[in-house]
């Protein structure tokens, strides 16, 4: 993506037509691809030189209610496994 720079995290997520679970039991949430009817947006970079296409794979799930209550952006994911308890503690 950026030459000479190391990415520490993979930012974009894969798109799926429906919600499913992987082999470890984690949820893979539905994210529609542009071919399946989602929208794309052409976004200019900070310098205005480059333009990238943004689709649902780049959108972070959040809760508008929690964002309003706490006056900040809060990422939300439903966790219902023993591994999730270990992860949050």
Q: Tell me about the largest β-sheet.
A: 2 strands, antiparallel
Low-confidence runs of at least 5 consecutive residues: 1-8
Neighbour order of strands in the largest sheet: 1-2
DSSP summary, beta strand count: 4
Strand content: 5-15%
Envelope shape: extended
Quaternary organization: single chain
> What is the first-to-last residue Cα distance?
34 Å
Structural class: alpha+beta
Counting DSSP H or I runs of 4 or more residues, the number of helices is: 2
Question: What is the percent of helical residues?
Answer: 10-25%
Question: Could you give the order of the helices and strands?
Answer: EEEEHH
Mean pLDDT: 74
Radius of gyration, rounded? 16 Å
Could you explain the architecture of this structure?
Helix content is 16%, strand content 13%. It has 89 residues and is an alpha+beta fold. Strand 3 (41-44) and strand 4 (51-54) form a beta hairpin.
Q: Summarize this, please?
A:
The protein has two helices and four strands.
Characteristic terms for this protein:
89 residues, 2 helices, two-stranded antiparallel ribbon, 4 strands, 13% strand, alpha+beta
Which helices and strands occur, and which strands form pairs?
Layout: E1 20-21, E2 27-28, E3 41-44, E4 51-54, H1 64-70, H2 82-88
